[in-house]
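# nightly structure sweep
# worker-07 picked up a monomer target from the shared queue
# config: single-sequence mode, recycle default, output format = structure tokens
# input follows
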Amino acid sequence: MFFGQTPISWKSSKQCTVVRSSTEAKYKALADGTAEVIWLQYLLTDLQIPSASAPIIWCDNLGATYLSANLVFHAGTKYVEVDYHFVRDRVVKKKIQIRFISSQDQLADVFTKSLPTSSFTAFRFKF
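# output follows
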């Protein structure tokens, strides 16, 4: 998580549930990220630090990005637990934004994946 240009929080962990698709896994990760953003917004409100705009959560899975904005359930999403659809509610109310980022630009990959040397070097200079 960044506050402006400053990183303030970072977390990497295994999901404790079994999922049927990468879209479902990424959507659950979006829900976890959204919950953390909500907590951080409450903290900033308590500290009387106003939010200039809706926070942006970047996702490298198009399916999860579309699922967060699309109010229509599809056959492929019937396994996604209802608990995680609070992400949609936040998007509809414009309290968060979900945006797509390509895997080539996903800075978190340097911490979570084994990368070719060229990709690692490119990511290293983006910090």
